[in-house]
Amino acid sequence: MNHVQKKEDHILFALAGSEDLGIDTGFAAYRFEHNALPELDYATIDTSVKFLGKVSKIPFMISSITGGGKQSEKINIFLAEVANDFKIGFAVGSQRVAIEDSKYVSHFKIRTYAPDALLFANVGAVQLNYGYSIDECKRAMDMMDADALILHLNPLQEVFQVNGNTNFSGLLPKIEHLCRHLGAPVIVKEVGYGISSLLAKKLQNIGVYAVEVAGAGSISWTDIECRRSNDVVLHSAAAAFRNWGNPTAECIRSIAIDVKDIKIVGSGGVRTGVDIAKAIALGADFCANSSEFLRKIIKSREECENFIESITMELRVAMFCTGCRNVSDLKNVKLIKNNA
Questions:
Q1: Helix (H) or strand (E) holding 286
Q2: Are 284 and 256 within 8 A, CB to CB?
Q3: pLDDT, tens digit, for every residue of 87-128?
Q4: Could you tell me the pLDDT band of residue 71, with boundaries at 50, 70 and 90?
């Protein structure tokens, strides 16, 4: 099966949803203490933040979704327009298909549709062990005039993917070389199983600007890859990893405590404005979501716009009812552990 068909399958199965993940994001374990007298005017609450030198209306972005295939160009254009209109960031999915076949470059030429938005290019980190270098990473950025490069980590997915790339050895020095010579910020993200504080510290030490935790509790790429295969052994082995991964909330919290001077993007089941508020209170600087945006944009642009409007209102209300004038204030709000 070719790379383009694989990406079509990924969209199809992501839309269908994953089976029971056996693990959740961890956000439900926390709650805010309600402030009945916030001493604030709701209309003056500021949800905006600055990230990579650009102002975002809310600390939220469209995370990596599409990486080639028949639908990706249309999806990328629509999402770029929405990101620009609502002043949020947008990260495309893997650009491998366009790097290896120029006829797909148009799928990622989206700066025209988002002249003011934060745009993130995307390449699999493991490709640095399969012939990719700074040149390919620069091509990924240049084709979309991106503000930063995302390197995604997906070892568990690659193991269960037919003909997956599973040589993850020696990647840290290659990522360090990229950080030093790319000439643009590098963000490292997982795809749904989380980034630990130990790894975040290693990435901070080699010059990575930010980590997108993409914790457990959202899309299961192991499940998706299994649905693309009829291999009985693969299905049996994958079942053992139903409870695998670091919950999103715990990824954010542990990195914020243990690692300094690295930006944290909270993602992995961040579906509401209250989730965003909790992520910020736990230590995130920014948040992201992919699956909800994909489901909404496939239905209509209006659905996608309504989702952003709703999540913005939810964040503003959470800030109002915790006495927070701006997003920075949220970082000083103490969450209550429900089982405490």
A1: strand 286-289
A2: yes
A3: 999 999 999 999 999 999 999 999 999 999 999 999 999 999
A4: confident
Q: At residue 15, does pLDDT exceed 50?
A: no
Q: What is the mean pLDDT of residues 44-54?
A: 97
Beta pairing, strands 186-190 & 49-51 = unpaired
> Would you give the distance in Å from CA 107 to the centre of its chain?
19
Residues 6+ apart with CB under 8 A from 81: 113, 114, 301
CA 322 – CA 105 distance, rounded (Å): 46
Q: What is the helix, strand, coil percentage profile of the chain, to 5?
A: 45, 15, 40
User: Can you give the residue ranges of every domain in the chain?
Assistant: 3-337
3 state DSSP class of 82? helix
Fold of 3-337: TIM Barrel (3.20.20)
Q: Do 26 and 246 contact (CB within 8 A), yes or no?
A: no
DSSP state of 123: E
CA distances from 225 to 64, 133, 162, 221 (A): 17, 27, 8, 6
Residue 276 one-letter amino acid: I
Q: In this model, does residue 9 exceed pLDDT 70?
A: no
Nearest-angstrom CA–CA distance, 302 and 164: 36
Amino acid at 265: V
> What is d(CA 245, CA 294) in angstroms, rounded to the nearest whole number?
23
- Crossing angle for the helix pair 273-282 and 301-320, nearest 10 degrees? 50
Half-sphere exposure of 165 (CA within 13 A, CB side): 17
CB hemisphere CA count around 201 (13 angstroms): 9
The C-alpha atoms of residue 49 and residue 14 are separated, in whole angstroms, by: 30
